[in-house]
Amino acid sequence: MQRSRTTTDHNRLRLLSYNVQVGIPSSKYRHYVTNSWKHVLPFPKRTNNLDSIATAISDFDIVGLLELDAGSLRSEFIHQPEYVAQKAGLPYCYHQVNRDLGIMAQHSFALLSRFEASHVEEHRLPSTIPGRGALEVHFGEGKKRLVVVLAHLSLSARGRSRQLDYIAEIVNHHENAVVMGDLNSPLDSPEMQHFFGKTSLHFPGQTHLTYPSWRPRMAYDHIITTPGLALEDQKVLHVKHSDHLPVAMDIDMPHASLAQHNNQTRMMA
């Protein structure tokens, strides 16, 4: 069932970015040791946790999910992006496999949406160890289209700097752009400051701590937009189904995409 809209919020989109740690709940540092086997093998409550994640994201319009599995032994061959999309009532699912380890693991992320994309492009980000990517998804046509880039960046500052340079080349071609995901870096880091200097993306008024979920100390997860899109500062949802907390932001739908948005809302009603 699709969320109903009123005339006052018809051009407001609710965005969310969430690193879900392959459906593994964590609430203590020691869980990185005691739950390490869950990154390799299936466990009974993973699906229940994915159901809880789906409930938490179901009221949003565009959702970026990081650290999913696209169907392997550890996920009991469940395609997690499609599973969560279906459970959340989000009809469109665009996913990318970043590390293909065959039957053992299908490391992926996904953008879930209420609206059909007009263009989807997968990017392999520069990285010393292969497996970092970005997913570029367009909504609408023409100059005013909305372009969302979902990314999960490297742990090293040098790696992130190279990857952010790559992403800057993408967003600089678009008037209405959003970069979201687990950037593994606070926004005031040197590499992020360099990134803002190379793009027209707006530095948020404030950032929030998202990691670890049980005692947040680091701001790693972000939603960043070009000027004019953001209606509110990003905020954190205190749902603890992962080792990260999700971040959310409301944006203003670009006018060129508004007709498509309204048509699809009528079709799915």
Architecture overview:
There is one protein chain. This protein is of the alpha+beta class. The protein has a single domain, classed as 4-Layer Sandwich (Deoxyribonuclease I, Chain A), CATH 3.60.10.10. The protein is built from 6 helices and 11 strands. The strands form 2 sheets. A 6-stranded mixed sheet has the order 3-4-2-1-11-10. A hairpin with an 8-residue loop joins strand 5 and strand 6 (133-139).
Any descriptors?
single chain, 269 residues, alpha+beta, Deoxyribonuclease I, Chain A, six-stranded mixed beta sheet, 6 helices, 23% helix, disordered N terminus, disordered C terminus
Outline the secondary-structure elements:
Elements: E1 12-19, H1 31-34, H2 46-57, E2 62-69, H3 80-88, E3 92-100, E4 106-113, E5 119-124, E6 133-139, E7 146-152, H4 157-171, E8 176-182, H5 190-198, E9 221-225, E10 235-236, E11 247-252, H6 255-268
Parallel strand pairs: 1-2, 7-8
Antiparallel strand pairs: 1-11, 2-4, 3-4, 5-6, 6-7, 8-9, 10-11
Helix pairs in contact: 2-3, 4-5
The rounded Rg comes to: 18 Å
Poorly predicted residue ranges: 1-8, 258-269
Please give the largest β-sheet.
6 strands, mixed
Strand content: 25-35%
Tally of DSSP helical segments: 6
Distance between the termini: 8 Å
Strand order of the largest sheet: 3-4-2-1-11-10
CATH architecture: 4-Layer Sandwich
- The secondary-structure class comes to alpha+beta
CATH homologous superfamily grouping: Endonuclease/exonuclease/phosphatase
Beta strand count: 11
- The chain-level mean pLDDT equals 91
**Dominant shape:** globular
Share in helix: 10-25%
- How is the CATH topology named? Deoxyribonuclease I, Chain A
- Helix and strand run: EHHEHEEEEEHEHEEEH
Q: How many separate structural domains?
A: 1
